[in-house]
Write a structure and sequence with these properties.
single chain; alpha+beta; Alpha-D-Glucose-1,6-Bisphosphate, Chain A, domain 4; 3 helices; 8 strands
Length: 161
């Protein structure tokens, strides 16, 4: 399944870069994240509580950050498994200046297997898109909390295909 989205964050690119790579901010922003603990350089162990339709459960896995090109792009890879299935994904995140804001473009793919995949690809695409939207809305809110005078950012477009 392809994932793609474009989001506008209400902060300069350097500020957005720092927050997008801060473990505490990631834990707050990731929907269902119960635990995010460093397990190496740019690598984290993660526990997520997830639900798709009537299928709910916990997934444990890893998040790895690579190909860092400060402050313009990086790659994030996520692998996890649990009683409801297995998930793996990789995305490139690009940050571009947009006046006083930052335009974030996400492009990647995800593979989901097991019980959770039984709900169908169409539903999973919608869930993936909503999770990305929630993540970037939370990051934008955290940025605005740090700089309360800045204008609020807005989700431009998010899509999981």
């Amino acid at each position: 399944m392809q994932i793609a989205g474009q989001y506008r964050l209400g902060a300069r690119r350097e500020e957005a870069w720092e927050l997008l790579l801060a473990p505490d901010a990631l834990q707050r922003a990731l929907p269902g994240c119960q635990r995010l603990v460093a397990s190496g350089e740019d690598r984290y162990d993660i526990t997520l509580k997830v639900g798709v339709a009537a299928i709910k459960g916990t997934i444990t896995g890893t998040v790895a950050i690579a190909n860092l090109e400060r402050p313009s792009s990086y790659t994030m890879a996520v692998d996890g498994k649990g009683s409801i299935g297995v998930a793996a994904g990789k995305a490139t995140i690009q940050l571009a200046e947009d006046g006083e804001a930052t335009l974030v473009t996400v492009a990647g793919n995800a593979e989901i297997h097991g019980l959770v995949a039984s709900v169908g690809q169409r539903m999973l695409r919608g869930v993936a898109g909503r999770m990305m939207d929630q993540f970037f809305k939370s990051i934008d809110k955290q940025l605005r909390e740090r700089q309360p005078r800045r204008a609020a950012g807005a989700v431009v477009q998010g899509d999981a295909r």
